[in-house]
Amino acid sequence: MHRPMDESANEEIPSVVRPHTIEPPGLRSTGSPAAGNLPDPARVDPAVLAALLARHGWRRRGGAAGRYSRWTPSGPPGGSTSLLVPDTGAFPDSEDLLGEALTALARSAAPSARDVLVSLAVPSDEIRWWREAPEPAAGTAGAASWTGAEQLHGAARQILLAGALAVRGRAGYHGARHRRRALAALDGILVGPAPGGRDLTAFVPVEAGRPVAVRLHHALHATREAVDYQRATGGMEAFDSAVAAGVSRELTEAVVALVRGSEGAGIALEWAPAAGTPDGCPSRPEPVEFSPGDLPALRLAGARYLRDEPAVTVGITGAVVRLRRSGPRGAGIVRLRVLAGAEVPHVRLELDEEAYRIAGHAHLVGLPVRVEGRLESRGGFRRLTRTSQVVPVQVDDAERDRLMKSLQENVDYFEEACTGE
């Protein structure tokens, strides 16, 4: 069974070969896909199918040299599934053999069969996480298994998000910046099951997700090298230079979440055979492993990234969605929904009496405002300080109507306190 990365383990599960089709709620096996959902045999490259079978542990057990090969799942011979895969698509019966092989995969009880079908349906790079969890205490195996699976799934999603953030921009700490677009980049990713909370695979579609996979490859290896340097010398300089490779507080925290409570964990990446190896990457990347002994260095790095990431001077255009002050006069707190100028959804700022009055009037007539200031890293780049030049921005009637409608839909939030945002 597979599910999108933004769903928890007890939510809906999509079909293994139709990533956007959602089955009725419930945690269960996806079963055998219908014939109409299988990849088109005419579009399946026999060499790609053979490479995927070998990757997922299937064994080649003879065949006619130069014509076809026979494949069976790992384990003792004599299993119920046996595939005949042509060596090329040039033979008259190649398409028929491929169709029979795909049908057999769909009916196979081997979990790896569904993984192969996923990669054939949507060419995907595969990222695999594993955790060496300690043996659970007697009578708690079920609870430990469920908790481990949830922890693994959450850590994997954090790591993917860190990679997507690094694609949008290199920074020691991203906070709320670029988060919406980074999350959107993860929409098409599917994950396989995590039996016992020890192993999980993500299928990252090449067309939309390869930049994330490539960035993660470089960032994870840079993280490993920086940890080794810190443990050997006590210095943190390697973490500073690792930012250029995509390392960030978000990534170090994600690796901490993966390793915490385990006896060790690792991440392995394999490129989609149909797409080949991306430039600047090895054809078979080495797995990256971390141990509990690495946690102090990772935590120090995360704190360092948070502390040292500088504030950013910006000019933001935004719609006023909240206003709050303690009395009828004086300074007040304003919250803007960012329309342009910064890759964050909202910012909070404190304005003097005159600027607060301008923001209030702009809200009443449905106009956004433009304001300059410094976007502070404290709080995740959600706070604007040293503000100046608060001015309404003229928009056409259609845009004003749209803004007014949006603000009216959120009127319940208008007078809420901004404390803690």
Give your account of this protein's structure.
The chain has 421 residues and is α+β, with helices and mostly antiparallel strands. The strands form three sheets. Strands 1-6-7-5-8-9 form a six-stranded antiparallel β-sheet, with helices on both faces. The chain contains eleven helices and 14 strands.
Quick rundown:
With 421 residues, this protein is α+β, with helices and mostly antiparallel strands. It has eleven helices and 14 strands. Helix 1 runs antiparallel to helix 3, helix 4 runs antiparallel to helix 8 and helix 8 runs antiparallel to helix 9.
Mean pLDDT: 81
- Total helix count? 11
Largest sheet, in brief, is: 6 strands, antiparallel
How would you describe the oligomerization state of the chains in this entry? Answer: single chain
Kindly provide the radius of gyration, computed on alpha-carbon positions and rounded to a whole number of angstroms: 26 Å
β-strand number: 14
Give the low-pLDDT segments: 6-35, 410-421
> How would the global form be characterised?
elongated
Structural class of the helix and strand makeup? alpha+beta
Give the SSE layout.
Blueprint: E1 3-4, H1 46-55, E2 59-60, E3 68-72, E4 83-86, H2 94-107, H3 111-121, E5 124-131, H4 141-168, H5 179-184, E6 190-191, E7 199-205, H6 206-233, H7 237-242, H8 249-259, E8 265-270, E9 288-290, H9 295-308, E10 312-324, E11 332-340, E12 346-351, H10 353-365, E13 369-376, E14 383-392, H11 397-409
Parallel strand pairs: 12-14
Antiparallel strand pairs: 1-6, 2-3, 3-4, 5-7, 5-8, 6-7, 8-9, 10-11, 10-13, 11-12, 13-14
